[in-house]
Structure to design on (715 residues):
């Protein structure tokens, strides 16, 4: 592999990893706080992408879509948590089952509203060209995705470390019951967390649409990849989502190119290895079964 | 839940409940009552009252209505219903009852539904099947039951060939194919291009049975005239990110790239091809026709310009039958027909022609098979006839180039390879 090719593939891997981070951050956040693996995360991602498609058709602006879709998903999360999940609080398996139900309904409704054909979304004007980098052309939009991933990681870290909300979330991840006993409104915090998770899934859907397109089944792919990322990185920690996506993105890219017969096996081999050696993920902490 | 039982609901959604004894008794006595009643009511046909309609013809359609191929299933369903509408809902004076089952692109589900068609519905003929693994999977059940099955999509070569030990599948006197074999859409263009002097190709294909089969047939085609394959990339089917593969293509010297992708993969591949500037760098893309069918073109538009593909049909094909078909279809539905609609429409036509020869009598399956073998007609794709040896169609293959004309991105026909027959024995 020439150095130029290596560099371009590394960029491919990193931009894929950045997308995975945006996608997995929400899943990890919700799990850390609520102890629920939200299996509707892929469906939220898909809904974000289709909403973006409609917003772009209506307003002609990708940037409006990038604001509107996460907002809409956040609102949906804000409604779903008190309406459904809260009723089953403490019954984690039932909650997980419930999220499967939510995903089936959401995906089916997408089929009814937008149809089951394959659709695509153009990159926004200004980012649809390519940039000369080390003698090769590279798509500007993919560089934007890398930048967005880094920026989002920075923002989320700031919120986590420097704000009262972040403090509550960190405390909630440690022990939600104790946090409630100390007078923090847990119901509100859980609803906000779930909404933030859904909004992040929606954002990932918008950002991914120009790269991956929109089609039936995209929810399952997204869910699978985000699960891989959080399992490898460590469930429930932000650092885990960062490490997981930075590892899985390039591993997937180079795996597919170098060992194309085992394309999908490469990342699952990593999952198996991590689970064998560090069952809680690379940056995960040991959780006491409750 | 008046009038809409739990089991009926379940059946519509594609699964079944085990009956309780009470439900079984109610259902079976109801069925017995119905059987005693005055002559079973046939679905309204709207045909002429003069000729008394024959026994209802049951057609079992195994199609995907959910999952990644849902739109293909819908398209084929539209074509079926269009054909029946244009023929007063009758084939050879028999009113038609369509029974649809959703395989959801899951082979095990499809096999189950096939068994349902055979045992429970006792259909007279079976049609449909989109994915090749499913067609291979139901081959033995269909063959053993002497069920006439007209495959209206799945293109795996083995389904209509003589294969030692019948692994993974082989031809059957009761199986016909109204679509194509993967050989037919891949070998001729390889032969054609290399004969014209374009001899060296890099391959890019979806890494699954049908993709690898097509790549192999294309390779045989170009080798016939001294061409060669310089390398390949094979993304997994339903691959999300095409950049790693297109980057590999851009970093190797062979400028001509033959590809096999369809649907979402085709859109992703063509978009990434343009984003990474391959056309500008002098690379030229060729492919099996599904790479540039309507579902893809309406999303990628002029990004596809210049791509050369081969297929047995194009919506722009200039013949009387095609013009009528496209017009009829557009009168009925607010969209252009696609190649899947043509395959299904031709399947219905072939069935219709065979039934006419039999006077509508489908009881003797061997006679039914013989009648289908002798069918020939003018189809939207050109002359249509089954190869008597393989039951695969003998058809012209068109070489098409994508161009944007008057704001529309279309496949223009640049040449054709006449009467391509699958080499199966």
């Amino acid at each position: 592999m020439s150095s130029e090719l290596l560099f371009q593939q590394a960029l491919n891997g990193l931009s894929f990893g950045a997308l995975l981070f945006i996608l997995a951050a929400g899943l990890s956040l919700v799990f850390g706080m609520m102890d629920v693996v939200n299996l509707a995360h892929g469906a939220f991602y898909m809904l974000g992408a289709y909403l973006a498609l409609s917003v772009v058709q209506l307003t002609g602006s990708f940037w409006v879509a990038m604001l509107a879709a996460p907002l809409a998903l956040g609102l949906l999360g804000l409604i779903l948590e008190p309406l459904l999940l809260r009723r089953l609080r403490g019954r984690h398996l039932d909650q997980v089952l419930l999220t499967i139900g939510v995903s089936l309904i959401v995906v089916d409704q997408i089929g009814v509203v937008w149809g089951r054909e394959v659709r695509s979304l153009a990159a926004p004007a200004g980012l649809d060209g390519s940039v000369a980098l080390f003698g090769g052309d590279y798509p500007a939009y993919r560089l934007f995705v890398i930048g967005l991933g880094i920026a989002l990681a920075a923002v989320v870290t700031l919120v986590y470390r420097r704000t009262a909300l972040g403090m509550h979330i960190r405390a909630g991840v440690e022990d939600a019951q104790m946090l409630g006993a100390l007078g923090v409104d847990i119901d509100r915090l859980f609803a906000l967390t779930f909404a933030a998770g859904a909004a992040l899934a929606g954002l990932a859907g918008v950002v991914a649409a120009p790269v991956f397109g929109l089609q039936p089944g995209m929810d399952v792919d997204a869910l699978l990849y985000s699960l891989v990322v959080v399992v490898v990185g460590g469930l429930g920690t932000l650092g885990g989502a960062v490490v997981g996506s930075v590892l899985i993105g390039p591993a997937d890219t180079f795996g597919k190119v170098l060992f194309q017969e085992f394309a999908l096996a490469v990342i699952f081999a990593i999952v198996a290895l991590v689970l064998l050696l560090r069952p809680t993920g690379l940056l995960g902490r040991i959780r006491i079964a409750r | 839940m008046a009038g809409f039982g739990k089991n009926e609901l379940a059946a519509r959604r594609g699964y079944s409940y085990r009956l309780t004894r009470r439900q079984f008794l109610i259902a079976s006595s109801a069925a017995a009552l119905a059987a005693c009643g005055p002559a079973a009511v046939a679905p309204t046909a709207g045909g002429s009252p003069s000729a008394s309609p024959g026994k209802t013809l049951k057609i079992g359609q195994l199609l995907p209505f959910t999952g990644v191929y849902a739109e293909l299933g819908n398209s084929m369903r539209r074509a079926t219903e269009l054909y029946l509408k244009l023929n007063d809902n009758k084939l050879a004076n028999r009113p038609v009852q369509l029974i649809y089952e959703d395989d959801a692109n899951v082979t095990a589900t499809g096999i189950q539904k096939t068994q349902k068609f055979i045992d429970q519905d006792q259909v007279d003929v079976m049609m449909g099947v989109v994915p090749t693994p499913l067609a291979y999977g139901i081959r033995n059940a269909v063959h053993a039951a002497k069920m006439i099955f007209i495959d209206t999509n799945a293109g795996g070569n083995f389904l209509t060939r003589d294969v030692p030990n019948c692994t993974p599948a082989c031809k059957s006197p009761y199986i016909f194919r109204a679509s194509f074999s993967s050989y037919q859409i891949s070998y001729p263009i390889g032969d054609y291009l290399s004969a014209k002097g374009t001899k060296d190709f890099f391959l890019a294909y979806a890494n699954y049975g049908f993709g690898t089969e097509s790549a192999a047939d294309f390779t045989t085609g170009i080798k016939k005239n001294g061409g060669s394959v310089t390398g390949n990339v094979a993304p997994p089917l339903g691959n999300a990110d095409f950049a790693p593969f297109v980057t590999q293509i851009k970093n190797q010297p062979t400028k001509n790239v033959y590809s096999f992708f369809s649907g979402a993969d085709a859109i992703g591949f063509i978009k990434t091809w343009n984003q990474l500037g391959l056309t500008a760098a002098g690379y030229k893309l060729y492919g099996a026709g599904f790479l540039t069918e309507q579902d893809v073109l309406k999303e990628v538009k002029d990004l596809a310009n210049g791509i050369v593909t081969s297929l047995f049909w194009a919506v722009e094909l200039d013949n009387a039958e095609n013009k009528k078909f496209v017009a009829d279809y557009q009168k009925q539905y607010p969209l252009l027909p696609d190649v899947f609609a043509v395959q299904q429409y031709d399947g219905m036509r072939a069935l219709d022609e065979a039934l006419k020869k039999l006077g509508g009598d489908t009881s003797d399956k061997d006679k039914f098979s013989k009648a289908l073998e002798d069918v020939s007609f003018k189809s939207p794709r050109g002359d249509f006839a089954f190869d008597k040896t393989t039951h695969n169609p003998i058809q012209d293959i068109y070489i098409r180039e994508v161009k944007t004309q008057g704001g529309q991105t279309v496949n223009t026909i640049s040449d054709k390879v006449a009467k391509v027959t699958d080499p199966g024995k």
